[in-house]
Amino acid sequence: MDDLTISIVAYHNGEMIINAIESIEQYTDKNLKKRIFVIDNGGTPEEFSDILDKYPDMEYRNPGKNIGFGSGHNLTLPLLDSQYHAIVNPDIMLIEDSFSKLLDFMKRERVRMCIPKIVDENGNLQYSCRNEVTLCDMAVRRLPGRVFDQRRKRHTLQDHDYKTPFPVPFAQGSFLVMETKLLKCVNGFDERYFMYMEDADLCKKVSEITPIIYCPETSVVHKWEKGSHKNMRLFWIHLESMIRYYKKWGLKLR
User: Fold this and answer.
1) Among 26, 93, 221, 249, which residue is least crowded by beta carbons within 10 Å?
2) Which segments constitute the Glycosyltransferase 2-like domain (predicted)?
3) Which H, E and C letters describe 28-78, residue by residue?
4) Pick from 113, 213, 129: nearest CA to 171
5) Does residue 51 carry a pLDDT above 70?
6) Backbone φ, ψ for residue 241 (5° rounding)
């Protein structure tokens, strides 16, 4: 059994993923038995041939088309034989041995799912811990100006002390670590979400079993771009996912 498995879903961002994997290999303790799965939703094996040859603990899967974020990660579910599993975005970079620190934290504090401190390339905190999604929160995120700043801060738990652990209703899905048996217990991601809200849905399912905890003991870098704010096609996908989420879990206005 592996100590840790890691899944990363690719979509025409091979160079970014290679950089992420290089950082994982550079900083992760060599005594930690791990396996990295790359699920390629839009490229070819040739793009990853060099790094596949370089790292024997990496496996490549190509579904032949873009099956979406959650479905891509779910491809690994039958293959996982590990104590813990990490869901990692392509635009993540490690700057220290985050996995060892997170696993130590989870074992010590008896935590079954956690999210680390996530920062941008300049070391500024990204507020990736959030309250459960409401219709009001989704609306004010897109409105210009500072009128709704207090509401935005409430949604991203900015009133919490990010120097100490705390429970998180909704952990943004760029970097999540959880017990593999817990991920299998909730059947991974709901594949009805092609993109967006699948992380909120996963957190909702997990929260019915065990708290999700923020861990301040390690930081990872996230080169985050809000694609749906710039692209109308992605906006409509986001809207469709929101409707699906509220149909499943019930509409919360505020």
Assistant:
1) 26
2) 6-151
3) CCCCCCEEEEEEECCCCHHHHHHHHHHCCCEEEECCCCCCCHHHHHHCCHH
4) 129
5) yes
6) -65, -40
DSSP structure string for 64-119? SS---HHHHHHTTGGG--EEEEEEE-TTEEESS-HHHHHHHHHHHHT-SEEEEEEE
Instruction: For residue 236, give Cα distances in angstroms to 50, 66, 116, 232, 248.
Output: 37, 17, 30, 6, 18
Which CA distances in Å does 254 have to 77, 119, 139?
Answer: 35, 28, 11
Residues 6+ apart with CB under 8 A from 32: 3, 4, 99, 100, 103
Nearest partner of 93 among 5, 3, 147, 23, judged by Cα: 23
Contact 228, 238 (CB under 8 A): yes
- Of 150, 92, 124, 136, whose CA–CA distance to 246 is shortest? 136
Domains and their CATH numbers in the chain: 2-249 (3.90.550.10)
Q: Which whole number is the average pLDDT over 120-131?
A: 94
* Between 149 and 49, residue with greater pLDDT: 49
The tens digit of pLDDT for each residue in 205-229 reads 999 999 999 999 999 999 976 555 5
Q: Is the pLDDT of residue 147 over 60?
A: no
pLDDT attached to residue 13: 86
Q: How far is CA 175 from CA 84, 150, 155, 199, 201, in A?
A: 13, 26, 19, 10, 15
